[in-house]
Design brief:
By secondary structure, the chain is of the alpha+beta class. The chain has helices at about 10-20, 25-35, 60-70, 90-100, 120-130, 140-150, 190-195, 245-250, 270-280, 330-340, and strands at about 45-50, 55-60, 75-80, 85-90, 110-115, 135, 160, 175-185, 195-205, 205-215, 220-225, 255-260, 285-290, 295-300, 305-315, 315-325, 350-355, 360-365, 370-375. The strands form 4 sheets. A 10-stranded mixed β-sheet has the order 7-6-5-8-9-10-11-17-18-19. Helix 1 packs antiparallel against helix 2 (about 25-35) and helix 2 (about 25-35) crosses helix 5 (about 120-130). The longest helix is centred in the last third of the chain and has 14 residues, at about 330-340. It is globular and about 65 Å long. The mean pLDDT is about 90.
């Protein structure tokens, strides 16, 4: 690569911060973060200001721009027509966690799903050799910008414009696959393109998991203690995600059924929300707080079925309203009760085993204790 000493002190401070937080224990990735500049890949991005308004930051505001670039923050670099973030530079801490659990070494062949800004691609190219890196990006404009930034540092990995959910079979098999986007399940194409004894690192729901592939073509692993919520992978035939305004509109429809129930604490319990997102991956939700900061409404919709649900609190009771083809409350209630009976396990007690036919089995504590087969 072409080395640059631009902002080297800022890079050192970022590396020191990441090490202080418990990542970058591997010298390979520590050196990569020191030597690969992030600022080359994020000339412009958006941030929320103090009034929660989106503002654009670029080199014309050098102090704000530089402080954000070498902070441990995700930087959104692209939005779709409805305002949903569709490309970003991932939070460096999360990047470091995923790169370390990838357990990659120089010479290994790696497939990256989601080139994005190209910063993660550059780190992979630095550590493994650019000739061993293939990266797939669905957005041609995003891909071009990333490639330009990579070439400016003399990195020339193979950059493909295409649907990352299909992988890139032409260069398979891969020793490692890493996804810089969220997926609902691990696509069959990735499993097929992973070499025996290879590793797939992916963000499922709110969890990071490294799945090891056996020679029997079974992939298995346990969720990492750190959580993350990546931008969802965009399928080639449409947009992922749901605008907040559309979510509000859906849950404010006239309910088909209304019932009363005990006040469930599930709506503010992160460990249960982790489980809920895995079981109903199309679910999007929000929580509205009262004047004292307490939850008074939890609203959600399943974008796959168009069904929706609201939980409105009134003292010790909750009014449950729902509508659509799929009645969500029975599934949520049953799942919540089983989580309580299991002792309210945190997300890193769960793991996943994927059979050769693609069946995803969610397990608790050990692979023999399967608790749910994901749809």
């Amino acid at each position: 690569m072409t080395t640059t000493n631009d902002y080297i002190q800022d890079r050192r401070k970022l590396v020191a911060l990441l090490r202080q937080k418990g990542t970058l224990q591997d010298r390979l990735w520590c050196q990569a973060f020191l030597d690969v500049p992030r600022h080359v890949f994020v000339p412009k991005f958006t941030l929320l200001d103090a009034a929660e308004n989106l503002v654009t930051i670029d080199r014309r505001q050098p102090e704000e721009w530089l402080a954000a670039v070498y902070s441990d923050d995700a930087l959104v670099t692209s939005h779709d027509e409805s305002g949903i973030a569709c490309s970003s530079s991932t939070q460096p801490f999360v990047m470091a966690v995923m790169l370390e659990v990838l357990q990659a070494r120089s010479g290994m062949r790696v497939l990256e799903i989601g080139t994005g800004t190209g910063y993660n691609t550059a780190l992979l190219s630095y550590a493994l050799g650019a000739q061993n890196v293939t990266s797939v990006e669905i957005d041609s404009a995003v891909s071009r910008a990333a490639k330009t930034a990579l070439v400016s540092l003399d990195f020339r990995p193979e950059i493909i414009v295409g649907d990352g959910l299909q992988g890139f079979p032409a260069n398979a098999p891969y020793d490692r696959i890493i996804a810089t986007c969220s997926t609902r399940k691990v696509p069959q194409s990735w499993l097929e393109q992973t070499a025996d004894n290879g590793v797939i690192v992916v963000n499922l729901g709110f969890g990071i998991i490294a799945l090891s592939m056996t020679t029997e073509r079974v992939a298995s692993g346990q969720f990492h203690p750190e959580v993350a919520a990546f931008i969802e992978a965009r399928p080639a035939d449409g947009r992922a995600g749901l605008p907040f305004g559309e979510l509000i509109r859906i849950v404010n429809q006239e309910p088909e059924t209304v019932s009363q129930g005990d006040n469930p604490s599930l709506i503010t319990t992160a460990d249960f929300e982790f489980l809920l997102k895995l079981v109903i991956p199309g679910l999007s939700w929000y929580t509205r707080l009262d004047d004292l900061g307490n939850p008074e409404r939890w609203g959600a919709t399943d974008i796959d079925s168009g069904s929706w649900i609201t939980l409105d609190h009134h003292g010790d009771m909750t009014t449950v309203s729902q509508g659509g083809a799929r009645k969500l409350w029975p599934t949520i209630q049953t799942l919540y009760q089983s989580w309580l009976e299991a002792g309210k396990p945190s997300h890193d007690h769960y793991g996943l085993t994927i059979a050769p036919d693609g069946q995803h089995s969610l397990w608790l504590t050990n692979p023999d204790n399967v608790i749910y087969v994901l749809d």
